Amino acid sequence: MTAQRIEHDSLGEVAVDAARLWGAQTQRSIANFPIGVERFRWGRAVVRALGLVKLAAARANAKLGELPADKAALIERAAQEVVDGRLDAEFPLVVFQTGSGTQTNMNANEVIANRAIQLAGGRLGSKAPVHPNDDVNRGQSSNDAFPAAMHVAIVGEARDALYPAVDALRATFARKAAAFADVVMVGRTHLQDATPVTLGQVLGGYATQLGAALDGIRAAERALHALALGATAVGTGLNAHPRFGECAAREVGEATGIPFAPAPDKFAALSAHDDVVAFSASLRTLASALMKIANDVRLYASGPRAGIGELVIPDNEPGSSIMPGKVNPTQAEAMTMVAAQVYGNDLAVAFAGSQGHFQLNAMKPVMLHNVLESIGLLADACRSFDERCARGIEPDRGRIAANLAASLMLVTALNPHVGYEKAAAIAQKAHRDGTSLREAAVALGVAGADFDRWVDPAAMARPGAG
Predict the structure, then answer these.
(1) Residue 25 and residue 131 in one domain
(2) Contacts of 247 (CB under 8 A, 6+ apart)
């Protein structure tokens, strides 16, 4: 048996592991919510965000005369240890708990209070000289502190992990587009042959698509700079200094270098999380772009002999336990699975966002978890796809040239000279007889020299370049 101490809350006494910094309410949550314990614990991003919110609150309360300077300093020191990751083991709670995040907010309050007590040389659980509710949680409610932490965690993870990964993949495709600007290939629409494009145009399109998706995420992020701090329980700011929300948000901004500000409407900030829903939707847009790109890459690389086979991608591992020598487009497959998961996460966020009742949305934790999981998966997948696939993409120039030469849709270049109907007849004859397009055109009265002058795949791919 480990040594225990007795903590108490408004419901009575609770036995807590004597070595732990958490208190009664955290212990009750451990007992009451054994749901997904091994899979849904809060991670570093959430714990760091909680520490930042409590640090900012202590500084704001000290500046506003709501906390004595010495007590605020103790809270700041303990909260900084939470921010720095020194107390991560003291945050054992899971996503599926009270929908306001009350247990997680109290977990932070208790840990910071007990650590401050240790720093002051006091006795754990004594709530003196620092009280978890009266001091660490001063001017706050779980209803405004937890959504503030939601925004801080999401913005921090997006900036630290997602944006660099997406931009690196975008830059890789941009470099590849420049490198292969001269490679003319068959265009495809409806999964059928179409008029020519260049490989540079294809890859450049991917770069633009990723850049646009990233711009959309950055735009959605701006709404998350508004923090609910100062709203307290229902949005009125009861028991908080009138300037607490403004002051605390400014402190979070100074600690993070991100322009956080008080939410202009505190009632909306508690009862609805439309900004989180919109941010999740922007992640889904990125997932959509990545799904398209990954599918294109694996289709272009399909084969190697019975598929399209126009792109060569890195061989990363054997692809079959029974077929020797088989290699699969595994990075593309992993990317498409990540995209599917992000779509599912976004659906959960969208539904949870619709479940605000009166003055509170009580699905905050699951919204936060799903958005953070999507950010992490997308960041990891972009990095892996970039390093293990995109950077190694090369054209099979021989295969591309052969497919281009065999394409019937080169006949489109004849339209201005012979008309649509005769051009269609030429294409149909070539397809029916199994001959080249040039042979069919000559058979139907087009001079060979004219055909050679009019049908120039490179010019067709850049019709305005000449």
Answers:
(1) yes
(2) 59, 60, 63, 64, 241
Neighbours of 71 (CB within 10 A): 21
Crossing angle for the helix pair 244-256 and 44-63, to the nearest 10 degrees: 130
| Per-residue model confidence (pLDDT) at position 38 | 79
Residues 86-126: pLDDT tens digits?
999 999 999 999 999 999 999 999 999 999 999 999 999 99
Dist CA 100 CA 241 (whole Å): 22
211: which 2 tokens? 């850049």
Catalytic one of 320, 321, 374, 436? 320
Final residue before a domain boundary, out of 397, 422, 437: 397
The torsion defined by the Cα of 169, 171, 173 and 176, in degrees rounded to 10, comes to: -140
pLDDT, position 90:
98
306 backbone dihedrals φ, ψ, rounded to 5°: -105, 10
435 within domain boundaries = yes
CATH number, domain containing residue 85:
1.10.275.10
**Of 90, 111, 138, the domain-final residue:** 138
Which residues in the chain show pLDDT less than 50?
none
CATH number at residue 338: 1.20.200.10
* Pairing between β-strand 394-395 and β-strand 261-262 as defined by DSSP bridges: unpaired
Active site residue 241: no
Range of the domain at 347: 144-225+267-397
* Cα–Cα distance for residue pair 76/58, rounded to 1 Å: 6
Q: Give the model's pLDDT for residue 1.
A: 67
Both 130 and 148 in one domain: the answer is: no
CATH code of the domain containing 440: 1.10.40.30
pLDDT digits (tens, 9 = 90+) for 319-328: 989 999 999 9
Same domain for 134 and 148: no
Concerning whether 369 is annotated as a catalytic residue, the answer is no
Q: Measured on CA atoms in the order 44, 125, 229, 370, is the torsion positive or negative?
A: positive
User: Would you tell me how many other CB atoms lie within 10 Å of the CB of residue 124?
Assistant: 19
Q: Catalytic one among 190, 321, 357, 407?
A: 190
Count of Cβ atoms closer than 10 Å to residue 159 Cβ: 15
Is residue 286 domain-shared with residue 176, that is, in the same domain?
Answer: yes
The CA distance from 159 to 163, in Å, is 6
The count of domains in the chain is 3
Task: State how far the Cα of 52 lies from the Cα of 387, in Å rounded to an integer.
Answer: 33
